[in-house]
UniProtKB/TrEMBL annotation:
The keyword Magnesium does not apply. This is histidine kinase. GO terms for molecular function: ATP binding; phosphorelay sensor kinase activity; protein dimerization activity. InterPro entries: HATPase_C_sf, HATPase_dom, Sensor_HK_TwoCompSys, Sig_transdc_His_kin_sub3_dim/P.
Amino acid sequence: MARQELLLLSAVAAVALFVVVTLPADIRVLRSHSPQDWLVSAAVYAALVAHRRLPLGTVAVTVAGSVVLMADGMAYPLTLPAVFYVLYSVALETGPGRTLAVGVTVKATLLSASLITHPGLAGFVILLWAALAVTSGGASRSHRGYVVEVEKRVRRAELDREDEANRRVAAERLRIARDLHDAVGHHVALINVQAGALACLLDDEDLGRARESLAHIQRAGEEALEELRLTVGLLRAPGAAEPAEPAEPVPGLDQLEELICSFADTGLRVTREVTGHARPLPEAVELTAYRVIQESLTNTRKHAGCDTAVVRLDYTLGALSLAVEDEGRPAALDTPTARATRNSRDTLGGHGVVGMRERVAALGGRLSAGPRPEGGYRVFAELPLRAARIEAS
């Protein structure tokens, strides 16, 4: 609204300046003009109503009326403001090429008519005002185009920000889902195994080992609840319901022995083999390796039908390679039980293989999982160290 008011005031000032500077000589002879001149002026201003629908026709009417008044004795016809207005309008609403053609034609016509009817400076004054009208219209068109482009960029930036926010939310939800599956799912699987063993022990009236299984169930349940509490805590803003707590240490390969012992409590004996120089690795690699081993051993305990597994770690200069293997049921057996076991192992708990692939791919690594020709199952992952350092930095 302020810009429109400024344009209106500028137009009024221009018209006032035109009247003061160019019309004094004609004011005294206004009464001498015939009714035809006034009719021509009225027709010219009435034609402005159609300037949006018929811009070129309006230009022709205003210029023709001005030429008629010049020929009748007016050096500065009363219709000149109408001519300047339509020139401004054409320059504002059309492209540079059309504006140039119309402007040159109108200015040449007015200058020629003025020089013929009133030789002197009047024609050049009219030419100057016509040029000013065209220039003002072109400047207004450029400004309007600039404003439209800026608004488009602002809208695009807002959409980009919304897309980025949605992408971050989706990535965070996926990360939390992986953590819930890897951590809580592991403990729940152990509880399930121990509960099955407990049922057998109660049938055999082996109360001592039954109490031991109950202790394992209780410990696994407590750990699952703690993992769940920590993960859910990520969804809360600090101070929203509980005071913020110090961040828990990220699990890594230094806790691998504790993880292996947790499986030993369920009857799965895990052997660890290390080649290369074992050393601390980037946090992202440590966490990914730990989660892959945890998920693989959990599925071995649930689906393999064997009580041994091997974890192999190979430290090289640029990568960490790991493999989790078990002997399981031989792949050559084609019984319904064997087929069901292979299918369940291939899914790795439904979301397990998907989560492991996503974790490994995030570091630029690769993962393969499937039955071994000689029987059993093998999960292999290669985690590059350089990509992890770049991501951490």
